[in-house]
Amino acid sequence: MEPITITIPDEQGALDRAEAMIIAEVLKRRGTIAETAEALGITRHALKRRLVKYEVPHSSQRGGWRPRNRKAGEATAA
Question: Is the CB of residue 32 less than 8 Å from the CB of residue 58?
């Protein structure tokens, strides 16, 4: 696989944009969230949070997983 090369500008928010670019490129190359998360060395849940945070389009947006906006200690519905 060809290495990913990016240029990071020296400005506010550059690290977030760099992370978003890397995630988008690895997702494009790997194709699935599971394979992308494994390649990046993070959990699928962590990857999904970042996909939402950076608004990276992905195939699981069909309506399956959605981030929950719960307060700490709030119970989950069973």
Answer: no
State the Cα–Cα distance between residues 58 and 52, nearest whole angstrom: 10
Q: Provide the token pair at 64.
A: 């399956």
Q: Provide the pLDDT for residue 61.
A: 57
Prediction pTM value? 0.65
Q: Give the three-state DSSP class for 73.
A: coil
Q: What sign results for the dihedral spanned by CA atoms 59, 65, 70, 72?
A: negative
DSSP-based three-state secondary structure for 18: helix
Report the SS3 class of residue 61: helix
Instruction: Map tokens 């998360």 to a residue.
Output: 37
Dist. CA 76–CA 68, nearest whole Å: 10
